[in-house]
């Protein structure tokens, strides 16, 4: 049993190790139980599954057939376990491109399931999905739609219609994820039928209605999930629904008499794919504020979340086994307490529940009303399945969608571009930059001078400011004209977040909190940053008596966690920072330690800060990076600061010398104070163009990594 369990654990990450453990378990089971026992059949099934993962389909088939013989001997009249093996034999033959035999096995499995469970059960729905997939691969569109409709009926407690124009309610599903697959597959079958046979607009509109149901189902699944990790994993599945929604709505916008209506839906789906979990977390915090939840309960939740974040962070640091067991037990208990706490809030304060789960995606008209005449919002959406890029451009006067094919190896081109900036390599820049600039160029009206970029996927770590304006760039020097020469540029996680921020202004006075440790502890093993002392001194002098300066031993983590931080409009951290792309919760800002804190301000601890800042500047290394997660974007320090209450953030994509960083930061604040207005994008543009013109720090390496997130 131990070998079997080890096999199961490894099956998620390492099929070879899983196979070794399963094959070790088999002869031990045989010695204990003989050759015809359920455990032997299960062992053969597990071994077959791993051979399938390793694409050794002949070995997989042999093991599944050995398992099937045992189940038939033990249960001559059939059994659900026998159906599982039949299903896997069907999958194996499908991989071998023998669809006729695969279909026979699927139908045999379906019959066994029906005998065991009746007409309604999620496993029947999964089997119908497989049959529908086979029919769709053979271009038998009506047959595939029929099977997906049967899947929806089998997985719904109250839906029993064969009419493909009808769908069940999301709340009626036995298994939400299985229903999400069924509804997506049905939408794809209707779309394929439109494209390859019918050319009937009704098929396409039915497809879109299915995807809108899928969107509602995703929202329901998120509501019922308490764990952020589970929600982010759901984001990858949800993103496939959103991609289909963008594509189908965009096609409809080009073939119907109501183009704007369907363009709006395409934009809606594209926005749903961005920072969904972050937006839900912010909506949750806002809901607590507006629903009148007492402060003592808010504080109680804050303590619970802080304790959970601390334990998660300790577990990610790979403690010794005995300590790990203790931490996992404590974390399990805390999560249970937090889940019970949240459920009680939703019961005792129904208005909180309504506010939390009813934050609508803003319309394009709403966003356009927020924009000044010279400002554009440009939202990018990468459709991986169709290898296309969608560009949604919104200005005060116009809303348009452009779509372009993605070049082959686009990730490699993007990486080459950023590397050319980091290594100051004009030759690589001349090869990659024009390609990316032409791909991403929204081709805006000449009156536009200010762009807010909402990136998608890996584009979230690309400095658009350094793209060339022209189509050709010399390979001996960087082009003299960049996007930054024409536009002031800012970034945002999503249009929904942009809309939220317009309603949330900082009421803090024009004061600044500056923090620069300069020298670090032996434990932190970091180099000194002597240039940061002059940087923060200069900025403090600009603000005079409105500056709170913490340097050297005063620049502690404890001082940052102080509730008085809420009174500052500007927060400036001149220090080292690191982003852990594998475990974003281990991303941190390095400060001084104290009796109560170790000096490492982790991402999880930033989430629990309560800020009222109009701008947080991280004059540190790589603070703009993070883990790129489907349906969520870049997860790192920036996201944590937005949740904590920062309206605008300045971060960097790579490490730059503290001298040039100091010049950029001090110039930025000089511009901000001189303008008298929080025009941060314009303030940053001015200092970057000045660095370009003055030549000493004119290479993109020095100014390109610093970007502004906010509106």
Brief overview:
It contains 28 helices and 16 strands. With 711 residues, the chain is an alpha/beta fold.
Helix count equals 28
Unreliable stretches covering 5 or more consecutive residues: 286-291, 624-635
| CA-based gyration radius | 28 Å
Assembly of the depicted chains: single chain
Strand order of the largest sheet: 7-6-8-12-15-16
Write down the overall geometry: globular
Which structural class do you get from the secondary structure elements? alpha/beta
Strand content: 5-15%
Structural features, described:
- There is one protein chain.
- The chain is an alpha/beta fold and 711 residues long.
- Helix content is 57%, strand content 12%.
- Helix 22 links the parallel strand 6 and strand 7 (547-551).
- The protein is globular, with a radius of gyration of 28 Å.
- The model is unreliable at 286-291 and 624-635 (pLDDT under 50).
What keyword list fits this structure?
single chain, 711 residues, 5-stranded mixed sheet, 16 strands
Secondary-structure map with pairings?
Layout: H1 2-11, H2 15-33, H3 38-53, H4 57-74, H5 80-95, H6 99-117, H7 122-137, H8 141-154, H9 176-198, H10 201-223, H11 228-255, H12 259-272, H13 276-290, H14 295-316, H15 321-348, H16 350-356, H17 364-370, E1 375-383, E2 388-395, E3 399-405, H18 410-422, H19 426-440, E4 450-454, H20 483-486, E5 488-492, H21 495-502, E6 509-516, H22 530-543, E7 547-551, H23 557-560, E8 568-574, E9 577-578, E10 588-590, E11 600-602, H24 603-607, E12 615-619, E13 627-629, E14 633-635, H25 637-644, E15 648-652, H26 658-675, H27 680-694, H28 700-703, E16 706-710
Parallel strand pairs: 1-4, 4-5, 6-7, 6-8, 8-12, 12-15
Antiparallel strand pairs: 1-2, 2-3, 9-10, 10-11, 13-14, 15-16
Helix pairs in contact: 1-2, 2-3, 3-4, 4-5, 5-6, 6-7, 7-8, 7-9, 8-9, 9-10, 10-11, 11-12, 13-16, 14-15, 15-16, 18-19, 22-26, 26-27
